[in-house]
C-alpha cells in the first residue's frame, strides 16, 4: 500500500503476525479465565498479545493506550499514539465463538488514521490507512454501496442483543445479526461484508479506534452518537457509542437511531 503511513502499516502487519503466533498457543473455549472489576473476563492470551503488540508497535515519542496496560498519562502529550485492544471479544474467545480479534489503532493528533484487525479464528486480516484505502486479506476492499436501509445487514453486539437493548430495532425491514467484538464488526463494515454496525452503549477508545480508522480509510461513514468525528487519546477514553456504515446510508442510519439516543443530539 502506498501511504504516508507505510512504516506504521508495516509495524501493524508485523504485530499482527506476532499476535497470530501467540494465539496459536491457546485453544478458544478451553482457556483459564479471570474476571476484572465489572465482571469483564481476561485471559493469559490478552496479556501475552498485549506484550507482543507493544514490542512490535511502540517507538520513542509515541504514546500507548491499551485495555491490558496500566494507563500512562504521558500519552496525552504525544501527537502519535497507539490505541489497542489485544483481544477484543474476550467473552467469545472464552466460549469458543470465532468472533474475536486483535485490534490495533494508530492515532495522530487525536484522529484514528490507520488500523489493523485480525481474527485468528477465521483467518481474516483487515488493514488500512486514510490515504491508502483498506485491504481485506491482502486484496483492496470498499464499504457497502447500498443506498437504503431496506434489506441491509446490520451487525449488532451479541451482549447488547442478549440484554434486550436492540428490541426497538427488531421490526425494521433489514437483517440484524448478533456478533461479538465491536472491532471485528467495524472491520467487516469497512470491507463491505456488512452494511452497518452501531452501538448506543458506551465503549472505550481501544474498542473502536482501529475499526473507525478502517471504516474511514475505506470511504465509509463513521461518527460518534453526537454525529461528530471520533477523537481519541482523551484523558477519559470512554465514548458514548459509535455509528458506522457504507457512505450512502449515513442519513438513514442517523434518522433510524435518533429517537433512541441516550442523550438528545440532532444530526448536523
The major sheet is characterized as:
7 strands, mixed
- End-to-end Cα distance, whole Å, is 34 Å
When the domains are counted, the total is 2
Average pLDDT for all residues: 92
Q: Specify Rg, calculated over alpha carbons.
A: 17 Å
Number of strands: 16
Helix content: 25-40%
Q: What's the order of the H and E elements?
A: HEEHEEHEEEEEEHEHEEHEEEH
Number of helices: 7
Structure report:
This protein has 268 residues and is of the alpha+beta class. It folds into 2 domains: 6-141, Fructose-1,6-Bisphosphatase, subunit A, domain 1 (Fructose-1,6-Bisphosphatase, Chain A, domain 1, 2-Layer Sandwich), CATH 3.30.540.10; 153-258, D-Maltodextrin-Binding Protein, domain 2. Helices cover 28% and strands 28% of the residues. It has helices at 6-23, 44-57, 90-95, 158-162, 182-190, 205-218, 250-258, and strands at residues 33-35, 41-43, 63-66, 80-88, 101-108, 111-119, 124-129, 133-136, 139-141, 153-157, 175-179, 196-199, 203-204, 221-223, 238-239, 242-245. The longest helix is centred in the N-terminal third of the chain and has 18 residues, at 6-23. The two termini are 34 Å apart. 45% of the residues are buried.
